[in-house]
Model the fold of this input.
Amino acid sequence: MVIAITGLNANDNPGPGVAVARALKQALGHDLRIVALCYEALEPGIYMPDLIDVAYLIPYPGAGIADLKERIQYIHQRENINIVIPNFDSELYNFIKITPWLQDLGINALLPSHKQLAERDKENLADFGKKYGFVIPSDHKIHTLADLDKAIEELCFPLVIKGKFYEAEICYTRDTALKAFHHFNARWGLPVIAQQFIKGTEINIAGLGDGKGNAISIIPMRKLYITDKGKAWAGVTIEGAELLELARRFVAATKWPGGFELEVMRDADGKLFILEINPRFPAWVYLTAGAGQNQPAALVKMIMGEEITPFGDYAVGKMFVRYSWDELVDLADFQQFSAFGQLSLDKVIV
Done:
């Protein structure tokens, strides 16, 4: 089995790739070869030989579909890829677009449609909530400073300023909101999103849908430690029938295929607000394996056509604590990848 994955960065805003690779290696072991598809030479996953067998540089999503196809065809000729699992929001549009072409090559994936992807987008989340009956915080799409001032007037402080794809900042003054607007505009483009601030307990739910309206796996997690970018650096699995039901309703309403994450806030009255819907596995997805529901492994089985029975119980009180690890590599490996865009475990490049 040869599986290609993206999202191998592991900084303070980590991608899911390393966790996906770890979960797959745990389930499939020596029967698995993992091909890392990377955008930068300093993505740490490239240099983790226990998880990654070979790494290749691929073009940024902004380069377009033609460049992506050309590069994947080159990699596929050398690696004979069976499955690809994209792990970044910003790359999904391109991968969905080329899905029929990938299937012609013999590369399988389970991805949402462009309609499903757009429907749960941050800028469309309020309409999504109205359509399916979910509680969503009020928001504004910001294109100009006038839009920002209108959002401040209607939402009041504090409010949350969010980038189109990633990152968010709680703002208490117009100056901090203005700074966040310019930062997210420069980094991710327009629109920037201003969202009502909801005070409460933040809960994330990792899930897996079969594309037919059935939830194969649902694992809720409460954040215990949060970075300045709002990312969970520690968390614990929790029970809650209302959380499982919320995720099941999402899957049933959208017929979501593949991995997803619901970012939820529970206020003092117990009301559940959906803050974001991420269209891929979260960076903490290895916790699902520790809790007894290995979501990446289940996804692979689904893609390969196996009949998967939805998981039942999971381990409540299973905790993860993320940590930094200095991976020591030879400078020659970095130079090899930087110069040629590929690096294999045995350092032999054909």
Observations:
- The longest strand covers residues 215-226.
